[in-house]
Specification:
Length: 482
């Protein structure tokens, strides 16, 4: 095999022996774009953009608590007393303005306004409105930066989740975590740069691994999912009878063969594969250590809630996210399903908030007490908002809400963003943005900016086009930055 790799072929030999000659070269560029037509660029100063920020970052690490299914902002954070006053009356056409509806409510003959049945109070020094469903979050509003004027382009779940996670409604683009891993490199050589945690045993809109995929970026930048149970990372441990020494010897020889292959073909994916093998070997020790939370004191479990003792729950994953931050993992993506409430919203929303409110607040307080919130950013939010009218029948105790891309709420806490701030606003009906709109690409540009990356300069050339997370738009929301 080594002799085969050591044989040198001239360009004439290659073109002569290849069945399609020059045509094969053209075909190869189409069939294998990563190695032949996808290359990193230099920044505007002619320097490589990989492994270092463009300017001093305010954030070293990100924990993104993604609430899949789209939480109802009107029942949690965007208080609208007019909806309560007009409960049951028709949504005025002057408010809707013919905006697109989903197929689930487009056939309704009536659009009755649904005021929230939950009580709201103003919290903290900033007077942010928070529902009684979120009592723990209400206690830390002075740490939070609310953006109530988020808006997106997609009206259905899959394209909307794909859009906010990758910058495109179409699958195949790199996720946010992959872009950050590619652009900034790693601060911990024994753990992945991009870790994904998914709450176990939750039903809801499906989550696909492409949401944390590397797209056309080198494969070592794909998110690594940590699972609860015996094998946190699939296929990581050695088979029975294989010692660590044997595995290391095997990897050393495999590395030699792959280096020979790379010297001949110069395919960057070979280097990526070598890097992944090496990381997997180091993770055999580091992952069990990070996943074992038995050493955490009782007061930490009390802070995060009883569920934090059950591996794979949202609370346990929040605690695990803090442990990963302590090990300098750069991007941690936590997914929690079950927020898609087209009907029976009051009961289902109560259950979701009970699962997530306490551990979310605990994570932020825990990071702060350890001094980690000073350079860590926590993000909470979904893919779009919910309508101000009821999907289906409206009763005094029950209603549902359809998808609403025109406005929704997220919040952030930690490094780089102003504390106790409420940014943007919607009209009295909670249907349209009237102040400081923030597009998904603006949010993504701001996130990269906080990590020291100019979103217009973090570029990857693929199939003849220069791609970036924010595509061809996006502005940093400077008003929310410190």
């Amino acid at each position: 095999m080594c002799n085969h790799h050591n044989k040198n072929y001239s360009r004439r030999d290659f073109l002569t022996k290849t069945s399609l000659g020059l045509g094969a070269v053209a075909l190869g560029s189409l069939m294998n774009p990563l190695s032949m037509n996808a290359t990193p660029l230099l920044d505007l100063n002619g320097d490589p953009i990989l492994g270092k920020p463009h300017f001093p970052p305010k954030v070293k690490r990100v924990i993104y608590l993604f609430q899949s299914g789209a939480p109802s902002q009107l029942d949690l954070f965007d208080y609208k007393p007019l909806l309560v006053k007009l409960n049951g009356q028709e949504l005025p056409e002057s408010v809707r303005q013919g905006q697109r509806l989903t197929g689930m409510t487009a056939g309704q003959t009536s659009f009755p306004l649904a005021g929230s049945i939950f009580k709201f109070k103003q919290r903290g020094q900033n007077g942010a409105w928070v529902s009684d469903l979120m009592p723990y979050t209400a206690e830390i509003t002075d740490e939070l930066c609310f953006i109530k004027s988020m808006h997106t382009e997609a009206i259905n779940h899959d394209p909307a989740v794909t859009f906010i996670q990758t910058g495109s409604q179409f699958s195949g683009r790199p996720s946010i975590g992959s872009w950050i891993s590619y652009g900034l490199g790693s601060d911990n050589k024994n753990l992945p740069n991009f870790v994904v945690l998914v709450t176990k045993d939750k039903k809801g809109q499906p989550l696909y691994s492409r949401l944390w995929g590397n797209g056309f970026l080198p494969s070592e930048h794909q998110g690594t999912q940590f699972r609860s149970g015996k094998d946190p990372v699939l296929f990581l441990q050695n088979p029975p009878g294989i010692s660590a020494e044997t595995r290391k010897n095997q990897l050393d020889h495999l590395d030699q063969l792959q280096q020979l292959q790379y010297d001949q073909q110069e395919d960057p994916e070979i280097k990526a594969r070598m890097s992944q093998y090496e990381m997997a070997f180091r993770m055999q020790t580091s992952v069990p250590e990070i996943m074992n939370t038995e050493g955490e004191p009782d007061y930490i479990y009390d802070m995060y809630g009883e569920d934090s003792k059950i591996p794979g729950t949202y609370a346990a994953n929040c605690l695990l996210a803090r442990r990963l931050v302590e090990k300098d993992v750069k991007f941690i993506q936590l997914y929690h399903q079950g927020w898609d409430h087209h009907g029976a919203l009051p009961d289902q929303l109560k259950r979701q908030c009970k699962e997530t409110d306490q551990p979310t607040a605990a994570l932020i307080k825990d990071l702060k007490q350890r001094g980690l919130l000073e350079d860590t950013l926590v993000i909470w939010g979904g893919e779009f908002g919910r309508t101000n009218y009821s999907q289906g029948a409206l009763t005094p105790t029950n209603y549902g809400r359809d998808h609403h891309p025109k406005c929704f709420t997220i919040f952030m806490a930690g490094a780089g963003v102003k504390k106790g701030m409420v940014y943007g606003g919607t009209d009295n009906f909670g249907y349209n943005i009237v102040e400081n709109p923030v597009h998904v690409h603006d949010f993504q540009a701001t996130l990269l900016h906080l990590m020291g990356v100019d979103h217009e300069r973090l570029i990857y050339k693929h199939q003849g086009r220069r791609f970036r997370l924010t595509d061809v738009s996006g502005n940093v929301v400077n008003d929310i930055l410190v």
